[in-house]
Amino acid sequence: MQPEALPEVKSRPVYQTVEKNDRSSMHIFVVAGEMPQAMSDILDSCDESECSVISVTDTSEAKQNVSKLQPTLPLSTTVYVAGTEAFIWYVSELFTSAGMMPEQVQLFAPQEKSRQVFCCHCYHVTSGVTESPAECGGCGRVLVVTDHFARKHGAYFAYQVNAEDPTDVPAAEELS
Question: Which end of the chain has less neighbouring CB within 10 Å, N or C?
Fold first, then answer.
């Protein structure tokens, strides 16, 4: 008798088309890297008095800018975020933990396909992963990268490829 296969956990985010929220009195644009055309189009449709652009290079710079700006924002604010997947979820968490509703933070699809991976063994987060299996930057284990996504951490869960025989590693597959 064959054991019953467990269903694969898939919590990978699905990114909707981002549109301007016309009911908002303030629009905040947070971008790391190049601003996508769709974000630029929304920015162009706003009056200068009702929008602000935060262009940053990393998460620490984003945190500083958001913490200064957050207390001054009206309740009817919409935030638009673009960058890597890890970045957009980090910024989303900054705003929601400061009291904004999740629907007030709109996320553009990530600008690159690499993933941030959370090792379930040593709890290290490895950035820039493009293939599975991948080596953990913390413990060095060869990990299978899953589609189980932790929004709070902006990372995909990964676990050791073969617990009984870690040398039995399948061929690498590009992550989509």
Answer: N
